[in-house]
């Protein structure tokens, strides 16, 4: 399968801003370290992990929208040459390069759809404008194309929705409208960062269904971020588990869930809304991740790990065990409990 996206040994650092003197310059710290994964055409990959583990900065690096003071400091992000475009190394792009890629080959939806829409324009006008810009449709065709796209996103009474303002739509409808705007340019990859987190469970399931359908029908590749493994399990072929800025386990989602190889993944399974989670108390993973400025040289999870031994204080690389990549000294011997 040809890769739509290839992230190779990505490092993202925060701070390290220039000061006028050496005393004024803040020390940079790595918020994302040595992250690698690939997404094929029509494939979906989930990034999962606790808050602050580096998922969002990884997505933002892919989209070229890192916040001020945060930068890619190593590795590469490669957009593959699919049917619709050439190979592009994203980390080297200038502003014009990004304009050609963003919204055309890459698009994104985030947690709070209302904040990405203009409150004073109807949803339909905002979508029609995207269709005009991205598909170069003449103005007299954009209304019909926009209504068709809104209907394809599962919005009932799409003609009426076209003329509504963002505040007149529910959260689920807004997210569908925003997904319509995101796919208006027929991108190869859609990044969805906690896109269903604020929705109630039933609406969340519907929006996840829509994402699945877009993959199947349009061959759209998906990069989905969630703190909840259950959400990733709904949609993603493969999952990368993040802890303290690193991928600690990566593999086929069903296998990772049934048979975790990293103790952090096992812990994450106990806090995920998987299976009959409504009938059990979701646990909290005891302890906290290491402080960003004080990362241990060995395994970053060791201080919270029930299986840690002295070896875990030494540096640990990502190694391949069967269908899995795991960053754990004990991965080959531990017997962990899946869901
Ligand atoms: N704009 C920023 N300035 C400084 N530090 C940042 C910034 N954005 C993120 N960080 C830091 O980088 C690290 C990774 O954050 P990131 O947002 O990628 O995590 P996350 O896994 O997506 O968490 P969440 O689910 O809370 O968004 C954290 O330590 C965070 O505090």
Automatic annotation (TrEMBL):
First-listed, main subcellular location of the protein, grouped into a coarse class: membrane
InterPro entries: AAA+_ATPase, ABC_Ni/Peptide_Import, ABC_transporter-like_ATP-bd, ABC_transporter-like_CS, Oligopep_ABC_C, P-loop_NTPase
GO CC terms of this entry: plasma membrane
SUPFAM superfamilies: P-loop containing nucleoside triphosphate hydrolases (SSF52540)
GO biological processes: peptide transport
Ranges for domain ABC transporter: 5-269
Superkingdom, taxonomy of origin: Bacteria
Signal peptide (from-to): none
Record has Magnesium as a keyword: no
Keywords, alphabetical: ATP-binding, Cell membrane, Membrane, Nucleotide-binding, Transport
Keyword Nucleotide-binding: yes
Localization in the cell: Cell membrane
GO molecular function, one term: ATP hydrolysis activity
Pfam families in alphabetical order: ABC_tran (PF00005), oligo_HPY (PF08352)
Bilayer topology annotation: Peripheral membrane protein
Protein family membership: Belongs to the ABC transporter superfamily.
Stated name of the protein: ABC transporter ATP-binding protein
Species the sequence originates in: Dactylosporangium siamense
Lineage: Bacteria, Bacillati, Actinomycetota, Actinomycetes, Micromonosporales
């Amino acid at each position: 399968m040809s890769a739509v996206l290839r992230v190779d040994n990505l490092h993202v650092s925060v701070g390290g801003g220039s000061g006028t003197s050496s005393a004024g310059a803040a020390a940079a710290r790595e918020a994302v370290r040595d992250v690698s994964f690939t997404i094929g055409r029509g494939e979906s990959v989930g990034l999962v992990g606790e808050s602050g583990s580096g998922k969002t900065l990884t997505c933002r690096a892919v989209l070229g929208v890192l916040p001020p003071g945060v930068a890619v400091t190593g590795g590469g992000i490669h957009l593959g040459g699919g049917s619709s475009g050439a190979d592009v190394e994203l980390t080297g792009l200038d502003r014009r390069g990004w304009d050609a890629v963003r919204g055309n080959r890459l698009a994104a939806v985030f947690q709070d759809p209302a904040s990405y829409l203009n409150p004073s324009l109807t949803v339909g006008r905002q979508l029609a404008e995207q269709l005009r810009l991205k598909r170069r449709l003449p103005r007299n065709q954009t209304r019909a194309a926009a209504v068709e796209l809104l209907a394809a996103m599962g919005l009932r009474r799409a003609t009426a929705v076209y003329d509504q303002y963002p505040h007149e739509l529910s959260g689920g409808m807004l997210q569908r409208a925003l997904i319509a705007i995101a796919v208006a340019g027929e991108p190869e990859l859609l990044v969805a960062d906690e896109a269903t987190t604020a929705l109630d469970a039933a609406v969340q399931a519907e929006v996840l269904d829509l994402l699945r359908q877009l993959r199947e029908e349009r061959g759209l590749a998906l990069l989905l971020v969630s703190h909840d493994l259950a959400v990733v399990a709904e949609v993603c072929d493969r999952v990368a588990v993040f802890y303290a800025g690193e991928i600690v386990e990566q593999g086929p989602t069903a296998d990772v869930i049934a048979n975790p190889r990293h103790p952090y993944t096992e812990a994450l399974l106990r806090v995920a809304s998987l299976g009959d989670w409504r009938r059990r108390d979701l646990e909290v993973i005891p302890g906290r991740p290491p402080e960003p400025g004080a990362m241990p040289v060995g395994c970053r999870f060791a201080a919270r790990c029930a299986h840690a031994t002295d070896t875990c204080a030494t540096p640990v690389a990502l190694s391949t065990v069967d269908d899995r990549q795991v960053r754990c000294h004990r991965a080959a011997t531990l017997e962990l409990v899946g869901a």
